[in-house]
Amino acid sequence: MEISPAVADVRPTPWTGRFDGDGNEHRRWWQAVAPHTPDADAHGATEAVSRPAVVVGFRSDEGVLRNKGRIGAAAAPEAIRQALGPLAFHLDRDVFDAGDVVVEDGSLEAGQERAGRVISELLDTGKLTVLLGGGHETAFASYLGVAGSEAVASGKRLGVLNLDAHFDLRDAPVPSSGTPFLQMARAEAAEGRELNYAVVGISEPNNTRTLFDTADRLGVKYLLDEDCSAEAVREFVARFLDTVDVLYLTIDLDVLPASVAPGVSAPAAYGVPLPVIIAVCKQLAASGKLLHLDVAELNPEFDIDSRTAKVAARLVNTLLA
Questions:
Q1: CA within 20 to 30 Å of 275's CA: 78, 148, 189, 311, which one?
Q2: Is the pTM for the entire model greater than 0.90?
Q3: Burial of 11 (C-beta count, 10 Å sphere; 0-12/13-18/19+)
């Protein structure tokens, strides 16, 4: 796979799937996705009407390890691609793959910075970027990319929407999968801005009082998992969208019930129903404000029949469609 100069440290990955024929009527994801190259806009379906999307993997579970979770999320980008590959391709946009940023030897911060540079470059060339984690330390890599992009530099109001059972606002000596949104808040404060952060699916029993206090101090908007009816979530998301010009969406798969997403570091005892999460994805895709998205916390080692990977693939497909 040929890679642009700014992503030269990114490792390529293959796509595979069922073959039914070469025509567009038979096309599946594995046939539609093309390698990302410097001239990627000229490589793909000429009738696409939406801006191109670029998939990047973030192969990391260092953040989960630091957060004392179940490691294995570094294998997630490959698992999600394997689940996406056989899906029928109905998108009206070109999709490219820029390979994987790999975190090795515990060098999480360096890996996040590399991924951030990749995302910024792609955003600045007009792409919709999709980062496949990795633990939820993926979110800070995404933030570095979004915050470093021309869209944010130009003064557009950025919103961060997290679909998650956890705030991930932990104040810890070293960054981990539990700290990314506090890191974002501090980074925004250093730039004279406030983090506009909202969470759908918070599990009250799985977040300490300290975390709720931190959320309240930072002005975080959130909806508890038990309150996530379809209408309540739709209204919550609509109100949040009214406050932003561009949106970064991050999905921690543990927002879903354990029966739907067993292959995560911290399976949810309650969770938000999959139809509600799908409806959010459709609402965000239709808003026209989606700048960047990521999917985090898939752990293939604990998945059952690739159930969680297939859900992750379905969410990505929905957001890009």
A1: 78
A2: yes
A3: middle
